[in-house]
Amino acid sequence: MSEIITGLRPRLAQPWPAGAGPFAGQVAIVTGSESGIGRETARALCAAGAAVVLNGRNAERLEHTRQSFADAGLTVVSCVADVTDYASCERLVAAAIQAFGRLDVLITNASISQRAYFADMQPEVFQRVFDSNVYGSVYPLKAALPHLIRTRGSVTFISSISALNGMPSGSAYCAGKAALSNLAHTLRLELDHTGVHFGVVHIGFTQNDADKRVLDAAGQPVLIAHRPPRWQKTQAGVAAIILRHIRRRRKRTVISVLGKLIVLLHTFFPRLGDWIVLTTTRRLRHFYE
Ligand SMILES: NC(=O)c1ccc[n+]([C@@H]2O[C@H](COP(=O)([O-])OP(=O)(O)OC[C@H]3O[C@@H](n4cnc5c(N)ncnc54)[C@H](OP(=O)(O)O)[C@@H]3O)[C@@H](O)[C@H]2O)c1
């Protein structure tokens, strides 16, 4: 895939137009930020004073998002890059350094989700979903790490409450997201001396863009399973929680009452937790399918 960097100004004066707020003077990369939660997190970071590199795979949609940010006076550039490709991630990080000269915050948000049972899934579909969540976090981090060490920066892996205990019809997604928790823990131990923050945010049901699609067992894009609207947080609300998590340099943030209940059941009453999932799988199939 060819990479496109848009919004770069030649010989950008340093510092870039200083915003006010808790992230003033900081530079962030948010992967998968042409849509959804990533876009609203990037917007919240800009509003809090940061300069942000937007990212996605679709050049047209990414440019539409970048332009809307620029029109609102926000300090952004964008870089088309597939985060499951390491060379593309190196160019994504280079775009941040070229535009703003430093990197303080990395949020690995890009992800492909699924709506398919393991027994039906084509192996290559499992791999696409898993890779987007695991290597789509590992590769941007690997490329960004030297810059983040320089600034004693912050890394946040965006995960899901479904990674806390697994979820029927989400095998590759849950396995990939769960791997991020162990990765963050290991990196905290390995890189403790660097002062870099490694955190994980487990997001619960959130309002989706109308055109959001996930993969079915054959790898076709389909609508996400129905989730009760009253259980869904707004994207802006989730973005605000992600920013608070970064500011407080938290190890783990679990969003929503349901997420906290899953942690409680998984830790202290695992058999009850599994009984609830098995019962709802039978009685509320549309919730999973
Ligand atoms: N929405 C929820 O209810 C919910 C719940 C729990 C966790 N989460 C997590 O929150 C994050 C954002 O979710 P969302 O609902 O906002 O999803 P979304 O609207 O589908 O946004 C995901 C973004 O990632 C991009 N992307 C996917 N694969 C990519 C790749 N290889 N390289 C670069 N960009 C890539 C997508 O663009 P293209 O595919 O068009 O390239 C899209 O812009 C994800 O990590 C998700 O797992 C969401």
From TrEMBL:
Family statement: Belongs to the short-chain dehydrogenases/reductases (SDR) family.
PANTHER family xref list: DEHYDROGENASE/REDUCTASE SDR FAMILY MEMBER 7B (PTHR44196), DEHYDROGENASE_REDUCTASE SDR FAMILY MEMBER 7B (PTHR44196:SF1)
Origin: domain of life: Bacteria
Residues of the Ketoreductase domain: 26-206
Upper taxonomic lineage: Bacteria, Pseudomonadati, Bacteroidota, Cytophagia, Cytophagales
Pfam families, per database record: adh_short (PF00106)
Alphabetical keyword list: Oxidoreductase
Name assigned to this protein: Ketoreductase domain-containing protein
Family matches, as InterPro entries: KR_dom, NAD(P)-bd_dom_sf, Sc_DH/Rdtase_CS, SDR_fam
Keyword Cytoplasm among UniProt keywords: no
